[in-house]
Amino acid sequence: MSTALHLAVDARMIAHTGIGTYLRNVLTRLVATHPDWRFHLVGDPAKLGIFAECEQVKIHPCTVPIYGIHEQLWWAKARIKADLLWVPHYNVPLAWRGRLAATVHDMAHLRLAEITASLPRRLYAKTLMHAVKTKTAGLIFVSKFTAGEFRELVGEPRAGYRIIAEGVDEEWYSPIEKTQQSDGYVVFVGNAKQSKNLTRLLKAFARIQDQISQKLLIIGQRGGFLTGATEVDTLATQLGARIEFAGRVDDPALRKFVANADLLVMPSLYEGFGLPVVEAMACGCPVLSSSAASLPEVGGEAVIYCDPMSEDDIAAKLLAVLKDSELRAILSRKGLARAAQFDWNKVAAETGAYFAEICA
């Protein structure tokens, strides 16, 4: 290997939420802190404009969507010379002959296959997860929980792995002017998938709506339900003015919505990390979280937890936190301290060091 590491990156998801947030934060810092490296970014040039003027970056145009045979065919024809290819998801190219690294964020496509994936996608996921286990020279998991899920569902990675948690952008700590909300609101952030457990949240909120003044604000793409969409729409209609769908918003608007909320609620059935929890803590917003999956690992003792399978428990915890301003103040202080442990600069530094180690 030459002194200057040549790193190829599958950057097609850079404009996405979730994995896209992770990729943007890590990749921009890797480029900024490794001027001697050479980066080969695969993706849509229109979405990679922030790297257009970087001398050490070469963009390889690719607009092929993620998942499916077409991405595999593209990689089979690609002629990219690099010391390492990093794929920030599990959809690794089967035809890649060089060193390969991947980041696995969760195992939902295998663990929750009956509600999150069609049969073809489930089979594709199984094939690629096996390739992740056997082909990668290095593997990153964003939580201990996800690492455990991978070992249980797929097996022990051939070349070992690192656990490198996600981070939170410094801007989440910046003071935000508080807007005057006459009745306040509870905020939910996430795409409307069944694993996000929005149906139970709506039912729980309906139970206590007459005992609280807050409304429920849903931030994220409303589509995405594979089953149960009719029930969610019915519940939302019944709640009337007590619920509002803001849709997908940009980062500044998201920070403002969360910072001004009385509470962020994340009742997910399954998460590989849980970035909205960290972001809420960073701006001082109290958090009520599911006790499932990776969320206790992320929230620690700075969060109130509920049983995501119990509408009764979700409702009771919502009511308890919303009725207790002193408790919310305590959660806010604890959350700020907890969020400080999740730093994108640290994430990028550990990731870069791991890549250098793989290629040594």
Automatic annotation (TrEMBL):
Q: Which domain of life is it from?
A: Bacteria
- Keyword Transferase recorded: yes
GO terms under biological process: lipopolysaccharide biosynthetic process
Q: Name one GO molecular function term.
A: glycosyltransferase activity
Keyword annotations for this protein? Answer: Transferase
Domain Glycosyl transferase family stretches: 177-335
UniProt keyword Transferase, yes or no? yes
Q: What is this protein called?
A: Glycosyltransferase involved in cell wall biosynthesis
Organism of origin is Rhizomicrobium palustre
